[in-house]
């Protein structure tokens, strides 16, 4: 997305706490001493952040008083723990955080912890809740389009202003638009920077710019579509037409061999956040390279099988907190914990020089063994499935065992009681039985006689009539009352006591929830890297190398990862871009000669390297890349109201400075006009 405004691009701050600092370096500007003196006299900058999280996606925008610019981040996937939001907070350190009063429970919990962090320097951010109506989609759009911006000439008509703002702000990112609208509302109420001015003086806004976290590579949605990194298709099953889509032929589709659901989620997250962090990239590649060694194939297959039993632990823990645990949840948790112990044992035998193996060996603590031992000793899985409720094994609680013994011996005992009751009944009654009904107790059951027509006919001396069911009369007798007093409601008593034991077991598990969450994080990471290793083995991929000095890429005999699976024969092609080979390439050739495939191949190989995957090439050296753009074919949208050239121009002007390095694959037929326009803008 383009950045437009009267101020220069904002320089990102350093990495947040705990982040690796190794990455592609950017040239640092030399400060002017006179500028430093002027900056000392200026008031400290304030940053006000507005954020929304919904259905696993995060939208945010913030206002920086140092350059009077609004920065926005297009809708991005984020975990329930809101790790992406934490990275944003660590990087920009806002003075206030604005959000909707009607917010998700995860966001509310996160902001509550943020407000209680006394160690944050220089002080904790102020948490501000605005009414949810201030974040409405339509009112936010109207607020954006009707704003008074100094960078928009007064001569612009309303239609021209809408078209101009549509080229800057991603109106298709609904959460971001709502966050921008809420931020403008907050700025208008607080009158940030103009507190002492007349009310008709508005808060100065000198530009809207896209915000990208340090070390992340910027990729727009068109690039994901053009390169077929993701591709959704309608599900072929008639039973799943209304339920959603399936992944089609795409890079994600051929690399996704994850065994657990959370591994698939993590792989998708890596695809949406390619990184420049060389330490992180090389740590991923080290694991993949280890599993590609022939002697480690059996180990990889064993780990793959174990990962198949790692299930949705957070959902189970959530049900435990709400006391909604099912029998299947205990089975799943038991298998998950024992599989985690198997992973720990396997990783302890692997080289501890690899960070992931060391983390699993150390952080899969003995708490896992304690949880597995408790569940295995307490839960009666066979009995629980038969009764569809939580039941415990024998010898756990003597009182429960005694009541179960009585309940098991009831049929023969009640037969004897019924024989004695029949001796005292009217001789016309041929038979009777004593039954036990949970919550009601013991009852005497007598067949209905032909003479018993009216309700008054049901009365029998010495018996209390209860109800008629299936032509049988049910009564309370003196003996059944004695049984109620002596034995009580055995079934309910047993269930209550077993429920209490289940609650105690849940408390033991929840007290060790941290290790279960860590198991899921590390297991999903291992699952993703095993999937990438499997794909690299099957498709003949090689390890890429990174060079901070190279402003471009060098690829020897590269292949298109999707086309080589579809074509009978595929001819590899090399690419050298950067240094004395030049950074701009003009590709010509007849129709269907493979120009577009070649362009996409370069983009895909670069993307795969920045995800931490092996690449389809004999050798690949990736230089300093902080963004990937494509414009191979037009993806116009009538709703945007933008021309094809305007969309091209909008993408191209995203470079805020001459130091920015980007991989751009652009169609030859638009390249000349686009270059002329960019040169005119930069000049």
From TrEMBL:
Residues annotated as domain DNA mismatch repair protein MutS core: 246-566
Compositional bias segments (type: Acidic residues): 35-44
Keyword NADP on entry: no
Keyword terms: ATP-binding, DNA-binding, Nucleotide-binding
Any one of the GO CC terms: nucleus
InterPro entries the UniProt entry points to: DNA_mismatch_repair_MutS/MSH (IPR017261), DNA_mismatch_repair_MutS_C (IPR000432), DNA_mismatch_repair_MutS_clamp (IPR007861), DNA_mismatch_repair_MutS_core (IPR007696), DNA_mismatch_repair_MutS_sf (IPR036187), MutS (IPR045076), P-loop_NTPase (IPR027417)
GO MF entry, a single one: mismatched DNA binding
Cross-referenced Pfam families: MutS_III, MutS_IV, MutS_V
SUPFAM superfamilies: DNA repair protein MutS, domain III (SSF48334), P-loop containing nucleoside triphosphate hydrolases (SSF52540)
Domain DNA mismatch repair proteins mutS family: 582-682
Signal peptide: none
Claim: Nucleotide-binding is one of the keywords in the record: yes
GO biological process: chiasma assembly; mismatch repair
SMART domains assigned to the protein according to its UniProt record, in alphabetical order: MUTSac, MUTSd
Feature: compositional bias, Low complexity: 1-25
Region called Disordered, residue ranges: 1-45
PANTHER family reported for this sequence: DNA MISMATCH REPAIR PROTEIN MUTS FAMILY MEMBER (PTHR11361), MUTS PROTEIN HOMOLOG 5 (PTHR11361:SF20)
Assigned protein family: Belongs to the DNA mismatch repair MutS family.
Name used for this protein in its record: MutS protein homolog 5 isoform X5
């Amino acid at each position: 997305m383009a950045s437009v405004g009267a101020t220069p691009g904002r320089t990102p701050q350093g990495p947040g706490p705990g982040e690796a600092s190794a990455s592609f370096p950017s040239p640092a500007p030399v400060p002017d001493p006179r500028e430093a003196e002027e900056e000392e006299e200026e008031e400290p900058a304030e940053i006000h952040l507005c954020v929304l999280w919904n259905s696993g996606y995060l939208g945010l925008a913030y206002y920086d008083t140092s350059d009077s610019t609004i920065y926005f981040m297009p809708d991005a996937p984020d975990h329930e723990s809101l790790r992406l939001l934490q990275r944003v907070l660590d990087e920009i350190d806002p003075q206030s955080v604005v959000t909707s009063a009607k917010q998700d429970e995860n966001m509310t919990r996160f902001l509550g912890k943020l407000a209680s962090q006394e160690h944050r320097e220089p002080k904790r951010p102020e948490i501000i809740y605005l009414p949810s109506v201030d974040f409405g989609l339509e009112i936010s759009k109207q607020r954006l389009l009707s704003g008074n911006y100094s960078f928009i000439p007064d001569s612009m008509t309303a239609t021209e202003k809408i078209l101009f703002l549509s080229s800057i702000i991603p109106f298709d990112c609904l959460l971001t638009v709502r966050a921008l609208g809420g931020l403008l509302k907050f700025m208008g109420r607080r009158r940030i920077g103009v507190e002492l001015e007349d009310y008709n003086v508005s808060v100065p806004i000198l530009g809207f710019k896209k915000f990208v976290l340090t070390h992340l590579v910027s990729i727009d949605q068109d690039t994901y579509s053009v390169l077929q990194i993701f591709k959704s298709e309608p599900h072929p099953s008639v039973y799943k037409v209304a339920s959603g889509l399936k992944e089609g032929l795409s890079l994600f589709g051929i690399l996704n061999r994850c065994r657990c659901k959370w591994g698939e989620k993590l792989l998708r997250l890596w695809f949406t956040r390619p990184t420049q962090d060389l330490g992180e990239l090389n740590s991923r590649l080290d694991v993949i390279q280890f599993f590609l060694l022939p002697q480690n194939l059996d180990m990889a297959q064993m780990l793959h099988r174990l990962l198949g039993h790692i299930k949705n632990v957070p959902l189970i823990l959530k049900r435990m907190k709400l006391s909604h645990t099912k029998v299947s949840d205990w089975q799943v948790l038991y298998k998950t914990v024992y599989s985690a112990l198997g992973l720990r044992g396997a990783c302890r035998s692997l080289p501890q020089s690899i960070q992931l193996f060391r983390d699993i060996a150390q952080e899969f603590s003995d708490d896992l063994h304690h949880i597995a031992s408790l569940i295995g000793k307490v839960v009666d899985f066979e009995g629980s499935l038969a009764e569809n409720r939580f039941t415990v094994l024998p010898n756990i609680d003597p009182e429960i065992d005694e009541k179960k013994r009585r309940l098991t011996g009831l049929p023969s005992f009640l037969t004897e009681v019924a024989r004695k009751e029949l001796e005292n009944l009217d001789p016309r009654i041929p038979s009777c039985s004593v039954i036990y009904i949970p919550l009601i107790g013991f009852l005497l059951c007598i067949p209905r006689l032909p003479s018993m027509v009216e309700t008054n006919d049901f009365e029998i001396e010495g018996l209390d009539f209860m109800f008629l069911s299936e032509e049988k009369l049910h009564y309370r007798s003196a003996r059944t009352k004695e049984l109620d007093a002596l034995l009580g409601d055995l079934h309910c008593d047993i269930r209550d006591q077993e429920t209490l034991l289940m609650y105690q077991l849940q408390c033991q598990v929840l007290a060790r929830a941290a290790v279960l969450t860590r198991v899921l994080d590390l297991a999903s990471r291992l699952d993703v890297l095993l999937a990438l290793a499997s794909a690299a083995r099957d498709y003949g991929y090689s390890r890429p190398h990174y060079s901070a000095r190279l402003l471009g890429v060098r690829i020897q005999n590269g292949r298109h990862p999707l086309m080589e699976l579809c074509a009978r024969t595929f001819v590899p092609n090399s690419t050298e871009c950067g240094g004395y080979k030049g950074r701009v390439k003009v590709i010509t050739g007849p129709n269907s000669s493979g120009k577009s495939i070649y362009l996409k191949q370069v983009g895909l190989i670069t993307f795969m390297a920045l995800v931490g995957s092996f690449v389809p090439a004999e050798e690949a050296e990736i230089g300093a890349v902080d963004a990937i753009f494509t414009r191979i074919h037009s993806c116009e949208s009538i709703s945007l109201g933008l021309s094809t050239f305007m969309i091209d121009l909008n993408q191209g002007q995203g470079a805020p400075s001459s130091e920015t390095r980007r991989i751009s694959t652009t169609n030859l037929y638009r390249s000349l006009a686009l270059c002329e326009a960019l040169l005119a803008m930069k000049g």
